[in-house]
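Form 7-S
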Amino acid sequence: MTNIPETGKSTRVTVRLVGIQVLVLSLLLTLGGRLWYLQIRNGDEYEAEAAGNHVQQVIEPAVRGSILDSRGEPLADNETRLVVSASRTDLMKMDDDGEAILTKLAGVLGMDPKTVMERVRLCDAKTPKPCWNGSPYQPIPITDEATARQALQIRERAEEFPGITAEPSAVRRYGSPNDANTAQVLGYLSPVTDEEIADAEDSDNPLLRTDQIGRSGLERSYDSELRGQAGVTSYRVDKLGRVIGEADKQPGVPGSNLVTSIDSRVQALAEVELEKAMEKARTEFDDNTGTNYKADSGAMVVMEADTGRIVAMASNPSYDPNDWVGGIDSGTYKRLTGKKANYPLLNRAIQGQSAPGSIFKPIPTAAAVNAGYDFDGSYECSSDYSIGGQVFKNFESQSYGAIGLGRALEVSCDTVYYRLAHQEWQNDGGIRPKKKPEDWFYKTAHQFGLGAETGVDLPNEVTGRVPDRQWKKDYWRANKDAWCKQGKKDGDYAERIAYENCREGMQMRAGDSVNYSIGQGDTLVTPIQMATMYAALANGGTLYTPSVGKAVVSADGKKVDVIEPESHGKLPMDKETRAAMDDALAGVATRGTAAWRFGGWPQNEIPMHAKTGTAEVYGKQTTSWFATYTEDYAIVMTMSQGGTGSGASAPAVRAVYDALYGVGDKKKALLPEPEKKLPKISPDGRIEAR
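Output:
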């Protein structure tokens, strides 16, 4: 055995140790360099990528609350349907932007490929509707009417339909209880937009990309209460997308239910009677135009007199709110928004405005008394009244000689009001008014609530118009240039009017005041304003703010927020004047212009008060108005190009009253229970119909 010198062994060991140290140091330097590269140089990039890849959110939309009528019948609720949706993000990754996939999908669903393409394209300023106005990053519903067979085809052949899903989802349903359409009152839903999401970021109930929000009607007014809050669960996933744990969970809160004052039985009746009246009017001949009446639109409002709550609100033409559920097709959208259909999305009860005609006369009656005229005084009711060669005729009434203001209301004598308005115009200085004219007739109209929103809990209410001195000046400034360009001294009627307006359109002329006194000229009102006014006449003078919402009830039924009636003013008259006017309006129904429509009415048991109105509109047929009240209700109806108030609108209003009070058969009366309680709520939170 050869012995190795100790010095040789020591040298080899040292070399090995040095080599190991160099290797370890090299590995450490390499690892440190890699860590520096990952954490320092590209740290932000990898941190963002890791966050995006490793935490995913699953959103569970909240169940939207139901909208119920006063008896607990669902006007709007939800049902489970099979919804087929497309991921625009996935489709845009394809060479043809997913056109082939969508065409194949249309075949499975039995839809027109063009319709499917329209539903997934994004809305912008140049894109015609229908289109998707929601977020491009959320699934876009193509149909909510898929059959189980169609959904199964899509799911079993998932590789043929990338980006397409078919899942059961809660979908809005407008059930029309008792055949009550209630479309304009309820409104409709559509997807939230990115702008709306940004605007709601700091609110108590922020919007998510999957949300649907109310676009009109009660769906919009009470959207935050009905919508609830979606549940959001965050999952930790690995790079392959596999769930490795739950990071966070925010449970959803279902939307609250809205109980309304609408009685679906009365609502259905109002809609039917309005439609029947319009159909009947179209068979009547208009002597002035030599054609039948067009009766192109109308509205009816039934209001509780002592609360301002809306029992029924009908608007015609109407539509089916279910057309918007699951996305609206181009043909339906064009029809609903086009002139040919006369814009059925409009709620004529709060957005339709026209001259009121003689149903306006309680206002100049009160104004005359406030100006110092005796209600029981003597006023000449002639067949016409002349001012400077211009003759103003008594439209609905014959000559009655000298009568009081109460009788003038009963027989709707225009010339009594012509004289009063002309005299007050002269007292205020005529064409050169005093520095501070009294303007009783205009001031009183504002005090009755005209020229302003009533505050009803529905969106997009219009104000109507009181054409007072300030309005005349503002309107003249806005239109002067156009009038001066169009006007001709010796031209046709429109050109002569433009010529006069160009020169003196800022002035309150005698003819303006005279026409205004009978609800004509530039005066504009809405049915909801007139219903509010006549309800105030019924209840002793309180102008209640109209309301449809009656209570908001939490999904579990434990919290009930009652929406109490609120007032926004009092009628500008004393008790004696109101009582005298009350008697006169009862006389309209018993011996005046509406008497022929109330034959057989139990006047001694249920005093009926009414006022007819027939408003002339330049270039159109007359507008029919009928305004009424009892101790319980105020009902106002109007019909554009429909004829006279008593002839066209009165029968429909009478039919509603007959049903409400059960005239002829009291067992069938639709009057609610006297205590007017909210619908009963069951222990599990459901609202039970009574």
